[in-house]
Specification:
This protein has about 150 residues and is of the alpha+beta class. It has 4 helices and 5 strands. Helices cover about 25% and strands about 30% of the residues. The protein has a 5-stranded mixed beta sheet with strand order 1-2-3-5-4, covered by helices on one side. Strand 4 and strand 5 form a beta hairpin.
């Protein structure tokens, strides 16, 4: 993949509430997601990086079952989205991408540990990570960080 064939679009809100994170570990999360996005666009494409604040409107099934995290209804949170216009991920693969050593890249494409590490770091921060993907259209990782 040639980086010249990838357009980077940053849509970053600078007026965000503070979140308590391990800077080095979160850098690893973003590095893993950026590398995967770039590799998913072998013929080029667009990589969007977005950040914004959100307010959790009310309890949802997702937050109600996460009793060990620090999300509370009507609390502000920070959302970071990493979206590519690459090949996408099948539903079958989405269910396995956080499994250790699982990779769709073949023998020379990686160890299958990047997303395992990423998922563990997100859990460590008691954050949420959602994945939206369509084959042939691209993938979006949505990370919601508690205050």
């Amino acid at each position: 993949v040639k980086l010249e064939s990838i357009k980077f679009v940053k849509q970053l809100n600078t007026d965000l509430p503070l979140v308590s994170v391990d800077k080095g570990k979160m850098e690893q999360v973003f590095l893993n997601l950026f590398l995967n996005a770039i590799q998913a666009m072998p013929k080029g494409g667009t990589l969007f990086i977005r950040s914004y604040a959100t307010q959790l409107a009310k309890s949802s099934e997702q937050t109600e079952t996460r009793t060990k995290d620090s999300f509370k209804p009507r609390e502000k949170a920070v959302v970071v989205e990493i979206e590519d216009t690459g090949i996408g991920i099948s539903q079958e693969d989405i269910e396995r991408i956080f499994d250790p050593f699982y990779t769709t890249k073949g023998p020379r494409g990686g160890t299958g540990l990047g997303l395992t590490v990423t998922g563990n770091i997100i859990k460590m921060h008691k954050a949420l990570m959602e994945i939206e993907s369509k084959l042939g259209k691209g993938t979006k990782f949505i990370i919601t960080l508690p205050p």
